Amino acid sequence: MRPMSPPRLFDQSLRRIRALRARQAGLRDEVLLPRIAEDIADRLDPVLRDFPLAVDLLSPGTDVAEALGRVPKVGRVLRAVEGADADISIQNEALPFQAESLDLVVSGLALHWAEDLPGLLVQVRRALKPDGLFLAAVLGGETLFELRQAFAEAETDTTGGISPRVIPFASVQDFGGLLQRAGFGLPVVDSERITVRYSDIFGLFRDLRALGATNPLLDRTRKPLRRETLARLNDIYREGFSDPDGKLRATVEIVWISGWSPHESQQKPLRPGSAKARLADALGTIEISTGVKPGS
């Protein structure tokens, strides 16, 4: 039997069209992507090895590739994205890389669009040489929770119902398991929350358009956003998520994920019972055997 494909969440054609329109209109994210690109370079700085061939995978814009190009230990950098303006064109999440051909794969703010993220991670791991590194910044579950909450309340008040407006994002806990399932060694996951502030709700909408990130959900409503719903949304957002100076807050959770293609030189977990010192001694506590309750 053929394995079942994961259910589709996004209208990928619409998403690509909106991203293209943003580029053609000269819209550019001036906040998140430049920061993510520099953070990627900073995270590579302490790694004690060179990466002769690196791929920037699906990152919007050129910030990530340009930042990689400034890292001395990174050699040739290829951009692999959807569309024609790239070194490598990606179609339908099929990565055209030979097995064990890449030293480094990075991605900035792109993988939350994947329909089959587990499958994509497996392809990345296979494309990496032994001891090759994968590093990505992905939007996490707390991203735009203010907008999600305000939209739900505004639509309930003005239409009597709720339609999906903000895409679902995976939680931090999900990513560690995905890296392990894909076969990565030494997986690491951490997150940070960034607060972006706007004068009004329309500033947030402009940034989402610049990222090509307006609602592409397949089960989105096809009806235009009603004027009274938009006005109510702005009021709710300002009442619940504004600072004393009147600026509106928007939370972005960045989940950093990394893993190495397995190699014999990497640290291996100890066999059970092979430790030469007891954890209890290291912590200065009393060891309690299995089945023995404290104080018994």
Any chance you could write out the topology, listing elements then pairs?
Blueprint: H1 12-24, H2 32-44, E1 51-57, H3 63-69, E2 74-81, E3 88-89, E4 102-108, H4 117-127, E5 128-139, H5 145-159, H6 172-181, E6 185-198, H7 201-210, H8 227-240, E7 248-260, H9 279-283
Parallel strand pairs: 1-2, 1-4, 2-3, 4-5
Antiparallel strand pairs: 5-7, 6-7
Plain-language structure description:
The chain is of the alpha/beta class and 296 residues long. It has a domain at 12-141 and 168-197 and 252-283: Rossmann fold (3-Layer(aba) Sandwich). The chain has 9 helices and 7 strands, in the order ααβαβββαβααβααβα. The protein has helices at 12-24, 32-44, 63-69, 117-127, 145-159, 172-181, 201-210, 227-240, 279-283, and strands spanning 51-57, 74-81, 88-89, 102-108, 128-139, 185-198, 248-260. A 7-stranded mixed beta sheet has the order 3-2-1-4-5-7-6, sandwiched between helices. β1, α3 (63-69) and β2 (74-81) form a beta-alpha-beta unit. α2 runs parallel beside α3 (63-69) and α5 (145-159) crosses α8 (227-240). The radius of gyration is 22 Å and the shape is elongated.
